[in-house]
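lol forgot to send this yesterday, sorry. struct tokens for the thing we talked abt
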């Protein structure tokens, strides 16, 4: 298969590229790559597909939403999280349909805090929105196209990079297996929690 991985230079994206690369042609896309893309900018998505052309799968591992306590949350912060993670990935699904071969797939990234965490309200809003979007969008896709979402919790490499004392998160290579399962599996409308 020919697979474009958005966010290929990030912790999860790099692990997904490595996991898929042995069996598939992988096109790496990110803000600073030879195939530049910003999922918060629909025109950037269109330019990416102009360069990449037709593919069998699109994986988005680029999405994020900053943590912020409710008292610190602003309309700008909320808008940034919605555009950069929820709306950006929903638009990605819509834009991908014209560039996916029959039976192709889009895999999105949500997240899972596991339990209520201070500052996580915006992230939970966006993550739950993505999971609901995927369940509903699966029924709308033509030509056997599929859409799924992966909801990783803390990734061990991220915890180490942040200097956290708790490094019990799931290793990126294990998280990547869920993305591979979405690309290579035949299911749609599902949310996978890597463990």
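and heres what i got for the seq, position by position
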């Amino acid at each position: 298969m020919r697979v474009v991985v958005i966010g290929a230079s990030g912790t999860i994206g790099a692990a997904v590229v490595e996991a898929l690369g042995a069996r598939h042609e992988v096109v790496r896309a990110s803000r600073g790559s030879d195939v530049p893309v910003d999922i918060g900018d629909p025109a950037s998505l269109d330019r990416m597909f102009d360069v990449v052309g037709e593919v069998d799968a699109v994986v988005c591992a680029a999405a994020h939403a900053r943590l912020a306590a409710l008292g610190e949350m602003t309309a700008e912060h909320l808008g940034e999280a919605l555009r950069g993670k929820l709306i950006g990935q929903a638009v990605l699904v819509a834009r991908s349909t014209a560039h996916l071969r029959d039976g192709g797939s889009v895999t999105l990234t949500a997240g899972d805090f596991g339990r209520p965490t201070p500052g996580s309200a915006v992230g939970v809003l966006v993550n739950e929105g993505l999971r609901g979007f995927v369940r509903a969008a699966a029924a709308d896709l033509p030509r056997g196209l599929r859409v799924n979402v992966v909801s990783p919790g803390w990734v061990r490499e991220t915890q180490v990079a942040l200097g956290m004392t708790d490094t019990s998160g799931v290793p990126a290579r294990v998280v990547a297996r869920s993305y591979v399962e979405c690309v290579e599996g035949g299911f749609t409308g599902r949310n996978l929690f890597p463990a």
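The chain has one domain: 2-192. anyway ping me if u want another try
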